[in-house]
Amino acid sequence: MLNPILTILYQIDPLDVSIGGIQTTILNFIKYAPQDFDIRLVGISSRRDCNIGSWQTILFFGRQIKFLPLFYVEDDNVRSLIPTTLKFLFALWGQDVDSDFLHFHRIEPSVASFNWRGEKTLFIHADIRNQVNGQGGNNTFLWRYFPSAYFALERLLMKQFSYILSCNSESLKYFRESYPTARASCQLIRNTVDNEIFFPLTSQQKGQKRLQLANQMELPANTRFISFVGRLHPQKDPLLLIRSIAVLDEANIHLLMIGEGELKVDIQAEIENLGLTNQITLLGSMHSQDIADILRVSELLALTSIYEGLPMVVLEALACGIPVVSTDSGETSKLLVSETGVVISTKTPEATADALNVVLRNPHNFPSKACVQSSRPYWAKTVVSEVYDEMRERWKNKQGLSKKIFSTV
Q: Helix 380-407 to helix 21-31 angle, to the nearest 10 degrees?
């Protein structure tokens, strides 16, 4: 019997660094895929020497997968005039992507998939209603300019999906209310953190590594680090975090910002204007292992997002044993408890600085053990295995039904 085939469709180059929760979800679904599944990925390439438009076999996380790069993108962390999602949709037309299972992480590319054979699942990573109805700045989500068009398109495309998996409870509620006949297929899925990469240090190890990083960056020995990880994008509102560091006014605090994006020039200008060049460092995009090294020596992770699902980096920070300071966006505020983080009361620099100070001045109230424990239900191997187990059972049932039909013909 042949193995079941899963095809994942998203604008990602698996061999390049690309920051984002969707990307992390996909990588975890590949890394922890059972050996009895054949994995295919339809994506993009950030390498000019890649064989665009042709299936190729690549070695990824020690296993062979099939990869189809549809087009070249120099840097997907920066938006272009024509959205990458739209380019991805156009490139999908005419492709033969029949599979046993098809996983979509944006709904728009599924315009091309009506005639494809296979069980289709849509992953939802944020609060759709808030995104489309314009919560936040004008540049956060382009569909906010055409909300009626988006919801009409969604109603058309939803018909083809067998399952809707959402990590955001508000989106799950929305889909169940909007599509009552599909209530049973709308399910909550836990986001994932790879605890083989993200794990804590002992107090002594953390002190040594922190001092080592401070020396490497030519900073004072008593420097304490705050981390930000994410795209430099209006949705993440990194400018709010930068302004809160100015309000914080603590000379020994240093903000490390990991990520790339369209706000980079604005961020650099704001850092200069506020006189924070000695307290904030932009590190650019980094591999997961390097992100984990930064998180492990930090006092906390800070997020000032306008909207979210449940950010992967929140789980990654907790798994590394550090607390989280976050705006009240998505599932983060529901996950954090008194020992694992602080929710910012209002989206202002002053309130953000106050929340940061709660952790910075009382680190003993946020023990590493409590942070790690709160991440445990989201460990990738467990969550991903549960999804694959259910897929395998459905596939076996279909195979058994097919054999029964053919045997009676």
A: 60
